[in-house]
Amino acid sequence: MRPFRLTLRVALVAAGTLLCKPLPAVAQTTLNVVTAGDQNMVDYVNNYLGPKFEAQNPGVKVRAVGTGPGDAGSQKIYEKLSAQQKAGTAAWDTDVAVVHQRGAATMVKESLLAPYTKEVSAGKMATRDSSRNALGQNVEGYVIPMFHSQIAFAYNPAVVKQPPKSYAELAEWVKKNPKQFGYNGVKGGMSGVGFVMGWVNANAGMGDQLVKGPYDASKKAVIDKSLASLKDFNQYVVMTPGNAGTLDMLNRGEIAMGPVWVDMFYTWVADGKMPPNVKLELPQPGLPGQPMYYVVPAKAANAALAKKFIDFAASPEIQAEGIVKQFNWYPGIDAQYVKAKMDEKSWNKLFTDITPDALASYGKPFPLSEYFTDILESYERVVLK
Amino acid sequence: MNRRSWAGLALASPALAIVAVFFIGPLVMSAVLAVRGKDGGLTTEHFAKAFEYYSTDLAFSAAIVVLSTLGIGIVAIAIAGYLTLGEHPRTLAFLRWLYRWPLFIPFIVTAQVMRTFLAKNGMLNHVLIGSGLIEPLQAQSLLDWRGIVIAFIWKQAPFVTLLLAGAMAAIDRQHIEAARNLGASRLRVLFEIVLPQARRTLLVGLVLSFVAMLSVLSVPMMINPNSPTMLTVDIAYRINSHGDYAVANALCLMSLVLASFGAWFYLREAARKAQA
Fold this sequence. Notes:
The complex is a heterodimer. By secondary structure, chain A is an alpha/beta fold. Chain A has 2 domains: 29-148 and 291-352, 3-Layer(aba) Sandwich (D-Maltodextrin-Binding Protein, domain 2), CATH 3.40.190.10; 149-289 and 362-383, Periplasmic binding protein-like II (D-Maltodextrin-Binding Protein, domain 2). In chain A, 46% of the residues lie in helices and 15% in strands. In chain A, helix 3 (70-86) runs parallel beside helix 4, helix 6 (190-203) crosses helix 16 (369-383) and helix 8 (220-234) packs across helix 16. Chain A is globular. The model of chain A has no long low-confidence stretch (mean pLDDT 89). Chain B folds into 2 domains: 1-43, no CATH class; 45-275, MetI-like fold (Orthogonal Bundle). In chain B, 78% of the residues lie in helices and 0% in strands. Chain B is built from 11 helices and no strands. In chain B, helix 2 packs across helix 11 (245-275) and helix 4 (107-117) crosses helix 6. The longest helix of chain B has 41 residues, at 45-85. Chain B is flat. The chains are: A alpha/beta, B mainly alpha.
């Protein structure tokens, strides 16, 4: 028995010492940053933004939590905030959230967010349409875009000498080159969803009504009709498993062309996971892109610190160095402020294949959320049946 | 009730409470949400929608899982049969060591491995082309229903083999030896002497695999998330992209009906065993 008791005592003492470890001299405040999106979003906060902000603000610890890619990630943040609102919690444990447009629109509608952009200097530098309007919902004052991302066609110029310049040309092209174009449907990530939205935009003849409204439920028939041709188109293409799946298949040479997120594409090229000769192309009449937003929940526990954090994250220096140079996103705040902080070469790298003009003309917002849902459901009813 | 049965009930109550809170409760909630309309009234619209959109996927899920279960049965009988009747000691030892590996690999890892292994320009086709078995132009991607079936069989067959090999080992060796002495081939011994005696264990293993495969999200999600796909992908999609718990719950109940075939089978076998 004895040796056992001794061991126990030693263990207890050891545990006690560990527990009573002296606390740091400065009281710690933890800033909880919850971000939707792929792992690169969490990496960005943990490896880049967090350490820089902590260095400037002693006693602050930035903790990033990821909730997963696509609208699903934003949906989880929404559900959490909504639950805290319904429970009547006084201080919500999310200080800063990074969400997609659809999530931001719902959160503003249900008063889950605090207006803050007037109180931070970066607020004046974000004046693009996307900082006021998210899928038809007015979000002015509640959001600052962290970055903009864009969907484009990636193609292998060794196989595709003359890439189709429009959706109409693509529909012809796939018939001549069956199984060379691949996309990921609507259940495998947003690049496929964006491709389908672009298809409806190109074929439904609804013009700006899709993105500007007003919403008209009777247009469902028009959407159905425009997607009937996509069913035919699908016979000549490959369905890929996910956003990364399209890139994978391009990389292995199994397809020659497909819609991808521009930032993911550049990251893959930089990591050597994609042949550097693969190029991007933005077809007419356009593919959608979207920002992700920095938002502050209505009852964030550390609201003041949260605003300071966003002001820092959206500053031109950080946008230039972190967003554009390291992570290959298009800047969230207006381009002229960011460009001034960068060398010409890094800035131009972002626009190698897609010129700023093409981006301005053919980079579209996603449709209004009602149309968005109608199109997804119509795809399941018309194309997948 | 006498004192003894009260004590028994008290002892069982924590377990019963866990079943009630974590299984029966959510199940009832799920059923309620699936039939509750926006106004709170009773409705079948969610089921109607689930059928309209996903009846193909329901049939696809059932077909995939039945096919995989058959495949698992064949592989398990082959391996367990050789382990019981095989005569080459080194092959036996090697097989015994090798076949269990997939047991320790999670479904999602299996899916990830298959995703690169079965792709058009993946490892399998490289090997086939390299060994001259197929021409490069014949190479095709197996990342569709076949990929899912292959992943399921690869992952679940060892589990059933483990159960089956145990049951076969428990059979009296004299039966086997008697049959061999009378000149029966090993194949005949397997199908006429060994397998009938281990049949019940095989069925139980297959039913458990059947139910497990129905609930796997990662494999269809990573190998073939496009149409037609399995119900699990659709359930995740309804929740993640639409926040639509009602249709998702309707789909859950539909896959519960599929799974309950397995449960019914299992209970029937268990009842027979209890009688015997």
